[in-house]
Amino acid sequence: MINQTRLQKLIDFLILLEPNRFNFNKVWDGLEDAKGGCGSCGCAMGWTPTLFPDLVQRTVGCYATVEMVDDSDKSYGYERVAQRLFNMDSETARFLFSPEFQSWVHEELPNCGMNAKPAEVAEMLTQYLELVNAGEIDDN
Fold first, then answer.
1. Beta bridge partners of 76
2. Which of 28, 38, 47, 92 could staple 88 via S-S, CB 3.0–4.6 A?
3. What's the CA gap between 32 and 41, in Å, rounded?
């Protein structure tokens, strides 16, 4: 089952986030200290270390990404973090948090483009939870 409490925490954060602190096309910009900072201008998953610091951390390798704190395989990036943090399948994790792919999860979800504002992504995630709760999306 989807961890709705964690996803709702992300939604609530995104609603209040200033648009200039968000870029749906990047996990995070890699300019902040990988162990802390404000999260910089990151996508929804780029802000998860700020919201869940005991579970998720920023990392810099070939590109700036996030990883689970307890994950021994660091190669999965934001999709793997979304999968584990929110308890969702890998396809849903990839399509919900990648620009222009949300309707692949469900046809009623609006696609959020690379220039999406944080409130738009929050609204899409809210609609996703509504579809899950209505039984329109299988979350098992």
1. none
2. 92
3. 9
Report pTM: 0.85
Tens-place pLDDT, residues 47-60? 888 899 999 887 76
Domain of residue 113: give its range. Answer: 4-133
Q: What domain count does the chain have? A: 1
| Beta bridge mates, 42 | 22
Which residues are CB-neighbours of 102 under 8 A, at least 6 positions away?
Answer: 95, 96, 109, 110, 111, 112, 124, 128
Q: What is the pLDDT of residues 15-28, one digit of tens each?
A: 998 888 787 666 65
For the chain, the distance separating the N- and C-terminal CA atoms, rounded to the nearest angstrom, is 5
Please report whether residue 140 resides in a domain.
no
Query: Up-side HSE of residue 41: CA atoms within 13 Å toward CB?
Result: 14
Beta strands in the chain (DSSP E): 56-60, 64-68
Residue 36's pLDDT is: 40
Residue 78 counted as domain residue? yes
How far is residue 139's CA from residue 137's CA, in Å, rounded to a whole number?
6
